[in-house]
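Q: Hi! First time asking for a complex rather than a single chain. Here are the components, and I think there are two in total. Is that enough to go on?
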Amino acid sequence: SQQGEEDPQALSIQEGENATMNCSYKTSINNLQWYRQNSGRGLVHLILIRSNEREKHSGRLRVTLDTSKKSSSLLITASRAADTASYFCATDASGNTGKLIFGQGTTLQVKP
Amino acid sequence: DAGITQSPRYKITETGRQVTLMCHQTWSHSYMFWYRQDLGHGLRLIYYSAAADITDKGEVPDGYVVSRSKTENFPLTLESATRSQTSVYFCASSIRGAPNNSPLHFGNGTRLTVT
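A: Yes, that's all I need. Here is the structure of the assembled complex.
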């Protein structure tokens, strides 16, 4: 079964609005990562947050991590049409194995 | 991303044939991964490797074989292709693994169709 699960599966907003995506996971983690995938391309790393961090920012991106609830959120502020993509969270499996398990992703559509 | 390349970009093969997907990275990253991406399942880990000659199973390894004789190459072989292996396959690499994971760098994928 998936370690990380994103919610919602799909999200449609207008340009300029904020977009929030959530990720829940099942086991303890060392860190959690968010990735973006444009149609027909490979995934691109956005941000990594470690288990001892609660919030991290990168440009218009804000990621929070709540290890007590085993959840994370990705907020994209002032969205643009170019933000249209699928977004995935990834967590390392329990134990120090090195492998990353991805959720099923949230498909974001930003309408101009 | 120019640092990690997958070939071929598209492949059509018949059921029962052996097919090998290639992955090459120029960064000398220790870790390499193979994922498959299917609608409704997201990305699922097939195999990964922590270093040359070290490989381990992921979530869905059945029907696949990997090798890593050189750090930069991580080929994925489907020994006897089945229709259920029709998918988009992504190779990725990273500098470090757990507990201080570093970001994964992905190739642009191989779209495999098994007829």
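A: Chain B is about 0% helix and 50% strand. Let me know if you'd like any chain examined more closely.
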